[in-house]
Every structure is written in C-alpha cells, then in structure tokens.
Amino acid sequence: MPSTTQTIDIQVHDRKVLDERLDAAVRCLQEAAILTGTHGIMVTRNRPGSYTATLSDKVPFGVTREIIL
User: Fold this and answer.
1) Strand, helix or coil at 26?
2) Where are the domains positioned within the chain?
3) Which letter does DSSP use for residue 57 in this model?
C-alpha cells in the first residue's frame, strides 16, 4: 500500500463536531482508498465520543462500514 493516511482517531464531546469530523475523516480516507482500489473504510465507535476511522481490507472497496464496540 502506498504511504497514505490509513487511520484517523476522533475524540469529541459535541454531536455537531462529531458529524463534521467523521465526514472529514471519511473523505480523507476515500482519497487514500482510491489510490489502491482494494480497501474500504471501517468506522469504529470505541466508546461515546471516541471513534477510529481506518482503511480496511475487510471492507470492500467503495464501502464504508460502521461498528460499535
């Protein structure tokens, strides 16, 4: 995989800010995913206000999947 942003951690206390940061993270990862065409995006809710967005080979290219731990 080329040298690209593969994981983005998001910490927030406000819902509006959460939506903005998640959208920005997904856009950034979409740009990185296009370079390979092999990874999708996994957004994980680790706990309230704590999320991780990452490129994942377990998610098909062109798909964004969310999980809650």
Assistant:
1) helix
2) 7-68
3) T
